[in-house]
Amino acid sequence: MVSIMEIYQLLPKLNCKECEKPTCMAFANSLLSGESVLEDCPPLYRNEYESQLERLSTMLAPVKDAAETGLIVHDELCFGCGNCVVACPVNVANDPHGAAVGLAPSNDKVILAVVNGVVTVANVSECRRFGKNRILCDVCIVTCPSKAIEFV
Ligand code: SF4
Ligand code: SF4
Ligand code: SF4
Fold first, then answer.
1. Given this structure, which CATH class describes domain 72-151?
2. What distance in angstroms lies between residue 21's CA and the mean position of ligand 1's atoms?
């Protein structure tokens, strides 16, 4: 997980408030939570900060992806074991004869599926953490041996 300090170190550190945050540190926190985007900091787009902008864009890509869902998979940590796929209660309910028993999905209702050796995420509106009957399900997280899944 990216830390606020790592983000802060790459910001212009001008505390100019153009981002409508009181300090660059506050903006770093807002970036990490997905509330703000890099474009909200105009000074960062000056030539002198080009390399920092590039590094921040790479660093924050997973957070950006998670804006809608909060669920991110760190691809570099996932080795495709499929633990999360068979453990997810929504997968079990929606695809009892496919993903839930370690086979290829038999329909398109699954949330987690291993594709080309890495877990992919779909149908996130079905996830128990985000659906209408929201609960703090963490089955996929705790069953992952490499801590590749995270909610931000
Ligand atoms: S606009 Fe950028 S440089 Fe200015 S306070 Fe916000 S984060 Fe810092
Ligand atoms: S949090 Fe629960 S419902 Fe959501 S993807 Fe993970 S295991 Fe499935
Ligand atoms: S449990 Fe972790 S390592 Fe295994 S497939 Fe799921 S995310 Fe990847």
1. alpha beta
2. 7
Q: Give pLDDT, residue 73.
A: 87
Alpha carbon nearest to ligand 3 atom 2, residue: 144
- Asked if 134 and 118 touch (Cβ cutoff 8 Å), the reply is no
Cα-based torsion angle of the residue sequence 99, 103, 104, 110 in order, rounded to the nearest 10 degrees:
0
- The CATH number of 4-65, from 3.30.565.40, 3.10.20.310, 3.40.630.30, 1.10.15.40, is 1.10.15.40
Residue nearest ligand 2's atom 4 by CA: 127
User: Ligand 1 centroid vs 46 CA: distance in angstroms?
Assistant: 12
Task: Provide the whole-model pTM.
Answer: 0.58
30-56 pLDDT, tens per residue?
A: 887 667 889 999 999 999 999 999 999
- Beta-bridged to residue 73, according to DSSP, are 149
Q: Is residue 18 scored above 90 in pLDDT?
A: yes
